[in-house]
Specification:
alpha+beta; five-stranded mixed sheet; 22 strands; about 45% strand
Amino acid sequence: IIVVLLIVISSKVNRLMKNKYEWDSATCQPKLSVKGNENVYCVEFIRGDIITLEGIPATLPFGGSSGFWGESGKTWTSQHGTPIGADVIYYAGYEDKFYHLKVDFPVEEMKKAVDTTYQYYDDNYEKFSGFTFGFAPQGMVVVWKEYMFFRIELGRYQAEVIQDDKKLEEQLFRNWSMNRKEVAERDFLPNVSCAKWDMYRQRYTFRVKMENENPALRLFQYCFTNYNGEQDIIFMPPLPVTSYDNRALPQILELDWKTAPGETFRGNIFLNEKVIFEKFKNFKTEDKQEFEVKISKDNRTLELYLNQEPVEVDSVRIYKGSVSYKGSYHF
């Protein structure tokens, strides 16, 4: 009777956890095309287990990674429970190596994560929506927590090379049209390094300030898409300047604003990787820097400055009438 009772209680607890904690898992890697392989940094999974506090089975998507750094671009069956670790075995063809990632996530942080919601506009709230695992060279693995529009790095982890991999080779290549040697001949990249993606993770203290020539301008949001894969949105900022925050450098800076009824705009600034990292290379993490965005009175130009000096960017795009906000400012 006691055993039966325990089974019933456990079943009810699992159903409650499934109803309360539902989220998606995803995988990604840097995007690179080599020798006809459109996604040479893609890794293939032998095992993709996500460990949950409740013991509910959860996994990464089957097959290989996809998308680009920080973004998978694929959906997968919903997972359940409080994720507290991962046990993943994968093959990186560009290194011709099998890796094992065995990691524990901080339990208290994950308990808090699945119970946290972010308010991003009016009465809209986003709960924990999932994980993305990013696989970079040399066994570097970055994991991001996601809350719909928000992507926050959980941590950077290190997978270990599996030396005795014959059984794994047989398991992976059993149904492939190419064997291991053929994959290595096509994809192998000598001297690959994770240094670039570790550089992306460097954090600095800065704020963004908006300057404009139109007194009627109302700012709706700043959106940061950062080189380290994180994404953050500041909705309806009370002032045109953000607070000083410690964050990775922005790859894309997006702004939404309005100057009159029917005059709504979205501006995207695509930063130049070489230029921006060169400018920040001698800054200390704690030193305060200031980006300044200047919007012309006619809403046709955006200019970016760093500490009052102009910054060369890859491109700037301005879209008219591309956004709509409930409860928008009235003029």
